[in-house]
Amino acid sequence: MGAFPQTMYFTGLNEPVGKEIELRGLKVEGDLPAEVRGSFYRAIPDPAFAPRFENDHTLSGDGMISRLSFNDDGTADFIMRFVETARYKAEKAAGKALFGKYRNPFTDDAEVQGVDRTVANTTPVWHAGRLLMAKEDGRPYRVNPLTLETIGSYDFGGALKSETMTAHVRIDAATGELFFYGYEADGQASTKVAYCVVAPDGALKSEQWFDAPYCAMMHDFTVSENYALFPIYPTTSDLARLKAGGEHWHHEPELDSWLGVMPRYGDVAEIKWFKGPKGCHSYHMMNAWEDADGMLHFDACLNNTNAFAFIREPSGIQMGLQDMVGALTRWTVDPRSDGGDVVETIIGPPGDFPVIAAKVQGKPYTTGFMLSMNPALQGPPLFAGPVGVSFNILLRLDGMDTPTPQVTQALPLPPMAGFNEPVHVPSTDPAKDGWLVFIVDSQIGDNQFTHEAWVVDAGNIAAGAVAKVVIPARLRPQVHGWWVPQAQLDAL
Asked: Per the entry, which co-factors are needed (predicted)?
C-alpha cells in the first residue's frame, strides 16, 4: 500500500506521526509535588510505513517509547524514539512495509521470513535497573532509560527459552521479584505457556512450561502472596487459519473461560483449573489477593466479548460498542480445592486500565483507580485508540478488600477529551495516597489536538490537576506506561 488506510485506526488522533521528538525545558504549570521527581515512560504504537493490508489496525504499529522527565529546576523534558527492532530496521532499509497481517508471519514478504517480527509497542517495564519494551508476541527489547536508544532484543542473558514474554508483568514490592509468563511460548497457535520468576537482581531463576486449555490471548495475569493466576478467555488462534492467510485472533462466544491457579513458587504440575462464564473477555486485571479465610479473589475489568472490533468482526460477531456489557468483576475461588467453578461478583462499573499502588500488588488492598465512560457527558467523546473511543472519566474505588467496593471520587473530562492510562507515584508519607500521572488528549478543531501531562492527587482526584505540562507536539494514544523514580535513574 502506498498510503495509510482511511479507517478509524489511521485517522484523527490515530493518524500516524512517525517522527521522533526531543523537547527540553517545558514549563510546568501549577504546583508540582516534590515527590514527583523521575520519569514517566509510555509505549506508543506508531507505524513507520503504510501497511501491506487494508484491514491493519493500531496495534500493529512500530514501538515508540517516550520519556517525560520532571527536573529539579521545575521544568520537564519530553523525548520520544522508535524502538529499533529487527522488524523496524528491515522495513527502514527497504523503505516500505515488509511484514503482513497482525501476528501472522505467513503473510510476510519472503525476504523477512524468520526475522523477529515483534514491534515492542505495548508496555515499558522497569526492573533491576533495566528498561524493557514489551509486546506479548515476542521477547522484549532493552532500551537505554536515559537516551531511549535501543540496546537490543533481551532474553535475560540467554536464560529465557520461551519465544515470548508478556507485556504485563507483576512485581512484588516486598521481595523485588518480577513474575511474568509467555504464551504461544514455542510458536504460533501453541498452547504452551512459560511461567517465569526473576530475582531482584534481574536474573531469571525459574522457567516452567504448561499447557493452557486452548490457545488463548493471555494479555494479563496476576499474582497474590501465595499464588500465580492465569486467566484464559476464548479469543483463540488456529494454525491452519494463519497458514491460510487469516487473522491471528477469533473470539469464540461458546467456549468456556478458565482461571488457572498454582502456588507462585510451586510446580506447574500443581496448577488447578476453575471454570468461568462462556464468551467473556478481559484485557486487564486490577489485583489478586487472599482474604483471612484463605479464599482467593481475582479482580478484573471483564466484558461479555472482546473489546476490539478488529477481532470481533472477523469472528462474525457484529456488535457495536453500545452493545457491549462490562463491569469490574471479582472471581473468587478456594485454592485449596481441586477446581470447580469461579464465583462471580460485580464489584464496580465498566471500564479498563485499572491502577493500584505498587506496594499492595498481590495483597489485600483498599483503593483502586480505573478509567470509564462518563454517562453524563454533554457532548461527543474523543474518538481514538484501538477501541475507537477514549475513556473520559477517572474513578477512585474504595473498600476493595470488602464484598462491596464503592466509587468514592471521579474526575470527568469535557467533550472531545480523553485519558491515557495513569501511572501511580507513591508518597513518602504513609498517610497519603500518592499521585497519578497521565496524558490527557483533547480535540480542539478539525484534526487538531492538544496533549497535556497531568499530575493529580490520588487522595483527591476530583480536584483535578495540581500540575500540568503542555506537550507541544502531535502524539498518538499510548498503550501502557511506567513510572521510574529519579533516585533509581541516578543510581545507574
From this structure: Fe(2+)
pLDDT, tens only, 280-332: 999 999 999 999 999 999 999 999 999 999 999 999 998 888 889 999 999 99
Cα(77)–Cα(344) distance, integer angstroms:
45
| pLDDT tens, position by position, 219-237 | 999 999 999 999 999 999 9
Look at residue 460 and tell me whether its pLDDT is greater than 90. Answer: yes
List of residues 6+ apart from 416 with CB closer than 8 A:
379, 380, 381, 382, 442, 443, 444
Tell whether residue 284 is among the known ligand binding residues.
yes
- Give the Cα separation of 278 and 255 in Å (integer): 5
pLDDT exceeds 70 at position 418: yes
Sign of CA dihedral 62, 166, 212, 385: negative
User: Do 219 and 283 contact (CB within 8 A), yes or no?
Assistant: yes
Q: Does 57 belong to an annotated binding site? A: no
Cβ neighbours around 195 below 10 Å, total: 24
pLDDT score, position 320: 83
Residue 451 annotated as lining a ligand binding site: no
Cα–Cα nearest to 488, from 231, 146, 23:
146
* Residues 382-417 pLDDT 10s: 999 999 999 999 999 999 999 999 999 999 999 999
Model confidence pTM above 0.85: yes
